[in-house]
């Protein structure tokens, strides 16, 4: 096994082009588990922790661009106001030790359907910036995941950053698990309400082959919310929204939970996050 | 592969390091520092917690090469000298409250508590539980561990 340690982004892209089989490693919280348990033996590790460009964030026009190497700890400490849903999700990732190392870039690279960042990125309408020596492209996160642990990223590409609207609406996130730390989600749900455009964003985690959106539920809610009056959301609307979110999931029975339980729990999370978000917007309870 | 890093204030070098091995393996097997413990090897238990450039991390999840040129503090580096009176206040508090049963989780907890108190000198109980959420004690001695943190915070 080789250990490649590029010192800047151009070197990293050149190394990935020369070694398309190399496994990128940042926080190591997924990659090292596979190595420690002999589940994978990549021909090379491509260490990205020396590429300082990956740990920057800043605005890019109407967008906020966050480098793929920004840790969950920093998302919570530095960006909670700018990526509120993702910051909430970040607080549920692993433990303090894990959050000190793990990155959203790594979460995207692993592309697990259970990745905690994914629902919030879906709800926020994020873009994923992929780069190679051939150039850079920005892919809507809705098109990024193509199957369990599979994405549209090609072998010569690295994940550079993700981008979200620089002025977020109200965002919420909730996750079901057996304890508050060190838990892979049984299911999770993220909601974004944008009062400017009256749009609703959704993201479902750990209840399908990929992270999913609940498109029908989002369209229903966007049409039914009393945006103008900010009055109470009718009980029937809350219930229907929950049903539609549950119906949008494509869960399986596995060790963490049954498909039926996940559908049920998602309906509950959808109603709860809606209540929190509506209150955040100044809406009546 | 050669890995050179500053460990507990001293520049240390390890040779013939396999690129896929962890910082934990380097510390324990190559540098003779067995304080950080090897248990789950997947970041679940926190027994291998060390400071890497000032942040507590699971040493089992850091690739050895990623530690090259970095600064590491292990539990062995927290006390300025040997002997009970020279121990760090967190170590003394664990001794005083009997927050040690089998002892396996203790080094990781000591580092995690050391970091917590450096960031927050007067943590509430929920703050303590949140800060220690990544450290498992399979003897389930959590109540004594909570007492130790409260004592360390006031000593």
TrEMBL record, chain A:
Repeat in keyword set: no
GO molecular function, one term: oxidoreductase activity
InterPro entries named in the record: CO_DH_flav_C, CO_DH_flav_C_dom_sf, Diverse_Substr_Oxidored, FAD-bd_PCMH, FAD-bd_PCMH-like_sf, FAD-bd_PCMH_sub1, FAD-bd_PCMH_sub2, Mopterin_DH_FAD-bd
Domain FAD-binding PCMH-type: 1-169
Keyword tRNA processing: no
Protein origin, superkingdom: Bacteria
Coiled-coil residues: none
Keywords: FAD, Flavoprotein, Oxidoreductase
Annotated protein name in UniProt: CO or xanthine dehydrogenase, FAD-binding subunit
Organism expressing this protein natively: Asanoa ishikariensis
From TrEMBL, chain B:
Keywords from the UniProt entry: 2Fe-2S, Iron, Iron-sulfur, Metal-binding, Oxidoreductase
Plastid listed as a keyword: no
Key word 4Fe-4S present: no
GO MF terms held by the record: 2 iron, 2 sulfur cluster binding; metal ion binding; oxidoreductase activity
Domain 2Fe-2S ferredoxin-type stretches: 1-78
Coiled coil: none
Name of the protein described by the UniProt record: Carbon-monoxide dehydrogenase small subunit
Lineage: Bacteria, Bacillati, Actinomycetota, Actinomycetes, Micromonosporales
């Amino acid at each position: 096994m080789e250990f490649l340690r590029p010192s800047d982004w151009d070197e990293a892209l050149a190394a990935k082009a020369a070694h398309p089989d190399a496994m990128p490693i940042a926080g190591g919280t997924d990659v090292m588990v596979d190595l420690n348990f002999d589940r994978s033996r990549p021909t090379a590790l491509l260490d990205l922790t020396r590429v300082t460009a990956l740990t920057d964030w800043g605005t890019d026009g109407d967008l906020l661009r966050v480098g793929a190497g920004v840790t969950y700890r920093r998302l919570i400490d530095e960006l909670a106001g700018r990526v509120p849903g993702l910051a909430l999700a970040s607080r549920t990732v692993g433990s303090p030790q894990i959050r000190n190392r793990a990155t959203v870039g790594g979460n995207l690279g692993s592309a697990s359907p259970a990745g905690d960042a994914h629902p919030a990125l879906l709800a926020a309408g994020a873009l994923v910036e992929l780069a190679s020596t051939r150039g850079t492209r920005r892919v809507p996160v809705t098109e990024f995941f193509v199957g369990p642990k599979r994405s549209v990223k090609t072998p010569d590409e690295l994940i550079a950053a993700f981008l979200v609207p620089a002025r977020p609406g109200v965002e919420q996130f909730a996750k079901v698990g057996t304890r508050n730390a060190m838990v892979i989600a049984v299911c999770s749900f993220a909601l974004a309400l944008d009062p400017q455009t009256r749009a609703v964003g959704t993201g479902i985690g750990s209840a399908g082959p990929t992270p999913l959106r609940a498109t029908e539920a989002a369209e229903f809610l966007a049409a039914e919310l009393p945006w103008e009056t900010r009055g109470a959301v009718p009980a029937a609307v809350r219930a229907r929204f929950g049903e539609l979110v549950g119906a949008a999931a494509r869960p399986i029975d596995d060790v963490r939970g049954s498909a039926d339980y996940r559908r049920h729990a998602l309906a509950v999370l959808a109603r709860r996050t809606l209540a929190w978000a509506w209150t955040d917007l100044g809406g009546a309870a | 592969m050669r890995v050179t890093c500053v460990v507990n204030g001293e520049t240390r070098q390890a040779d013939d390091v396999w690129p896929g091995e962890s910082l934990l393996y380097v510390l324990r097997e190559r540098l003779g520092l067995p304080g950080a413990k090897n248990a789950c090897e997947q970041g679940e238990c926190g027994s291998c917690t060390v400071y890497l450039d000032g942040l507590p991390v699971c040493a089992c999840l850091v690739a050895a090469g990623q530690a090259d040129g970095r600064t590491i503090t292990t539990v062995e580096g927290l006390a300025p000298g040997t002997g009970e009176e020279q121990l760090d206040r967190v170590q003394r508090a664990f001794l005083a409250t009997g927050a040690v049963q089998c002892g396996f989780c203790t080094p990781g907890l000591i580092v995690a508590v050391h970091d917590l108190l450096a960031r927050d000198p007067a943590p509430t109980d929920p703050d303590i539980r949140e800060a220690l959420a990544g450290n498992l004690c399979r003897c389930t001695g959590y109540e004594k561990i909570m007492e130790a943190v409260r004592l360390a915070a006031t000593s």
